[in-house]
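During the reporting period the student researcher (J.K.) took over the structure-prediction task from the postdoctoral fellow and processed the backlog of single-chain submissions. One of the processed entries is reproduced below for the supervisory committee.
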Amino acid sequence: MARYQSISDYPVVYFLHGFGDSPSVFVRNAKKVLDVEFTKDASKEFLLVAVDGSNSVGGSFYVNSPVMGNWETYTVSEVVSYIDSNYHTISEAGARGICGFSMGGFASINLAFRHPDVYSAVYAMSPGLLAPGKIKDAFETWEGDQIFLEAYSMAFAYKDQAPYIEIPSGDGSEADQILMERWESGFGNLQEKLDDYLALGVPLKSIGFCYGENDGYQWIPEGTCYLAGLLDKKGISYDIYSFQGGHILPPDFVKDQLFPFFQTLFLMSKIRKKIIQRSYNQYCFQTVNKAAPRIKSWCYCICKNYDTIMADKKIKRCINYTDKAKSKKCGHLMIVSTVGFMFGTCDGSKYGY
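J.K. obtained the following structure tokens:
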């Protein structure tokens, strides 16, 4: 982000990288774009967190596996908890999004579907998604990539004993066909995964996809469009963007697609905090609850010791630094409730709201 200001609470977008990729590459490239956009309008700032899903075999697929470890738990629980505990975040699902590329694209869909109480939106970029019957097509593109094949097996179709790896031979036997079905269930079984998500009863606010029409892994565009078709049948809206290109992200993708996608999400969130700098290093926070429009905007004043006041998220009184010598109480109660209402007495209307 262009400027990290500890007086603010920020939405968070989590990024999951592709197999064999470095999480830092996407962040470096995205930062160049986001710095420019955030400089234009600081109210659009959010935190971008890249979650490292690499391991000794090349990639974890961000799933729980008795062979490779509990990467899903790590990503959804441990990383999110750490970020919320150590940074100024809006710690609610409505202010969290997840996105990913290739392996991470699969993982972003998989985790968002399994944990809509943690993330409220997902954008999958060239995701590893398999339509029914396409596992053999995928195998053709994985031919010779022994590192990927072994990692995929340890994630989705492992043996109970060392060396744990079990790769279909394609000999047509019944045992091999059963193993092939296990392999397809990793990136596939999209109907079942969608049904399981819908059974949770917690709808995602936004779903987005992109893919290259000339992707060398042609099963990826096919799998993406297959899932989009399943969403259509359920009446679930989504964004989808295709481009002339391969297994890459197109130029200006972050600026033209990803940034607007998540901005729309955060603007639609029930609670939107707007920060207006005031004199004497005081600030007025305004909270708009769009789910209850009858409640007008309320705001309160805070002061320099915001970090200390907010540490335990309890009702406090802030110090009025307009009179440092006397250090008087300014009297504005700070209430941070679970639904985000913040009450006070200062008037934000004169600042354009």
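The committee noted the following: Confidence is low (pLDDT under 50) at residues 270-353.
J.K. will present the remaining backlog at the next meeting.
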